[in-house]
Every structure is written in C-alpha cells, then in structure tokens.
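Why do we bother with a discrete structure alphabet at all? Because it lets us treat a fold like text: something you can write down, compare, and reason about line by line. To make this less abstract, here is a complete entry for Alpha/beta fold hydrolase. Read it the way you would read a sentence in a foreign language you are learning: slowly, and without expecting to understand everything at once.
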Amino acid sequence: MALQAAKNRRDSRRRPSLNRLLAATAALLLSLSLAACDQAASDTASGQESLKAWPASQPGEDPPPAPAPVEAVIGNLDALAALLPTATLAALFDPVAFGTTVRDLSDPAVLAFHVRATLAQLSGQCQLASPYHCYGYPGYNAGVALVPVRFKNRYGTELYGEIVLPGRGALPPRAGAYPVILALEGLATNTAVYRWWHQLFADAGYLVFAFDFVGQGKSQDAVTGDPGNTIEDAQDALSYLLEQSPVRAALDASRIGVIGHSQGAITTLGLQAVEPRLKAAVAAAPISERSAPFAANPIPVMIQTGDHDGPVAPIPFLNPAVVRPIYEKLAGDRALIVAEASTHAQHTSYPVLPSAQWGLEIAGRYSLAWMDYQLRGDRAALEVLRGGHPHLSYLWDSELRIAGETSSYRGAGPLPQ
C-alpha cells in the first residue's frame, strides 16, 4: 500500500507537466493549421496557387518529310533546281532578297531541313504571306521545352504563344519564382526564327514567353476592329502570362525583361515607355530613330546593332551612325553594342540569312549579361558587360553607361595586332 501511494504521488506530480506539454503541442498544431489556411486563402484570392509541376511541354517542331521525289535529291542543289518550280526555289533561297550563305548551304543537314520546312510552309503550315517558314533552325528545336498556348488580345484576335520552360523543364516550379523574359519578333517572322535566343535565356534559368504578332506565324489575322498595334499585343501577352497562363504561379512579377529584334525592337522601345511591369529591355536592330519613337525611358535599355545592319538589305559600315541617336535619347543605365560585320539577320537563326559567324555569340553574350545584371543583380554579369569582345566593331564604339560611369570599346579588327 505504501509503495502504491508513493507511485500515485509521483504520477500526480507528472500530470501537470504532461498536460502542459499536450496543451502546447495542440496550440502549435492549431497555429500551423491556421497559418496554412491563411496562406491557402491568400494564394487562392490572388490566383497564385502553388504549381507542383510544369504543364506538359514539347520540343520545337521540325518540318515533316518532303514529297518522295524531293526527299530523294534533297541534299543536291543542282537536282533540286531542276525539280522544283522557280517560285519555290525563290522562297527557298532568296527570302526578301537577302541571298544565301555558303556555310548554311554547304551543310547537307541544314539544306535538307530548309527544303522540308519551306515546302511545309508553302502548303499552309503557317502564314503564307511570310517569307520565313515557322520551323526555325535544326538543333535549336530539340534544345527547348515549350508549352504551346493560344490567347486573345483585347480585340478578340487569337494569338499563338510559346512558354519556354527554364532549364528545359528540368528545373521544378517550386525552385522559382522565375524571372521572366518577354520575347518580341521581327516583321513577317515567327517565334521559331528566334528559338536560339529563347533557349539561351531558358537555359540560364529564365522563363521565356514568345508569341506571334497579329497576322504572323501561327497567330490569326486581325479581326474587325483590331488595328494590329504591336505594343498593345505585347501588353496583352504579358497580362495573359501573369494572370491566366498555366505557369503564372511560378513567375516573379518583379523581375520582367523584354527583348526584341527589328519590329520587335521598335515595339520594345515603345513598350518600355508605357509598361510599368518591365524592369529592363534589349532592343536589337531598331532600324533608326525615326522608325522607333518613344516618349520616355524609365528602365535600363541595351541597344544592339551591327556594322552592316539595315532594315532589308545590309547597309555596309553606316547603320551604327543611324542607330546611335536612339541610344543618345536613353537615360539612366544604357548600353550600345555594335557587332563587327554583322547584319540585320544577326539575331535570327534562319538558315539562309547572312551575318557574321560570331553574330549570335555576341548578341547572346551581351543580352544575357544585361538581364542578369539588371534583373538578378549579378556582379559577374557586370564584368562581362565591361569586358569587351574581339569581334565588337572596330569602326564604331560600343558603349556602356552604368551608375553614371561610361566605358567605350572597340574590337580587334581583321588585321594582326
């Protein structure tokens, strides 16, 4: 009995401590549960429910096989010239009088790809009015994980877009939120022409959204009342991406940049003046000050051009002087990159458009470093911007103005130093 009484006294001393522990645990669990509910309610209210996995993606589309007689001689230029109609040959090898490059046409795989793609284009696979097929360039299609989408602009015209996943889809959504690159295309082109650029940014951990303007690529022609305003289309595309797209929950809306080439560069300059969601821009080959008006410059902008840039055919050695006034209108952080011997096609990966062999490398190196510095605060990217390159123009200055400091660069030139 004495032993039992002693045990009871020990148990009675333990109970208050145990009860306090149970109460504290229950309070903690309740607190965690309420916090989870509050977060879920907040996420639901904002439309930003957690994204556990990316939507199904696919590589870029390669062209279908050509008709059997063409496939039999597809790597033989002479045989193709004898077999195909003159109009088809013109579409193959001379889009808008650009001419051809020996490098591309001497590669049998590129030639075969281009023949198949152009024949598919002529059979109605994308906009027939465009001189450029919508299959891009061999190699880049396999290097992206893209999610095809369709959305409507403010006038009701249906536009085609491609969400290019970061890290080719290998980076999970929860590793975000991801910075965003909005990619704007040139006149009469399509998303595939710039797939190399999309791949570059996606491989660096950005989510890229490219789309076809009204009447281009795989987008519809304008509905009644649609004026075909590319700035409005770009704003509507960005709104779709952030508010309605299947990846919206994985995006960092505070880190959005825009890149554009030719017509896309002109649109970029106009867009950055009126779109507060943007934080940085790259305008590649914006033609001239007259063709690229903008009323304000609230964000950092990089201009890219080449020695032989020009709106249709190259303008040897003169175009940087035409583009420079655009750069001088900019305020704050800005850059002007002039690539040696590069043409208006420098930013495309279309098979037969001529440009310098280092064109894509310079365009990609400096556009990525600009966004890495401006959107991510990457100091190593600033060193890339300040580092120069042997194939910058040796005739015209490239220039960088960051935080009030100005640096100028020229390339090494073609002669031994």
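What the structure line is telling us, in plain words: Strands lie at 146-152, 158-164, 178-184, 207-211, 251-261, 280-284, 301-308, 334-343, 398-402, 405-409. Residues 193 and 349 are 6 Å apart (CA to CA).
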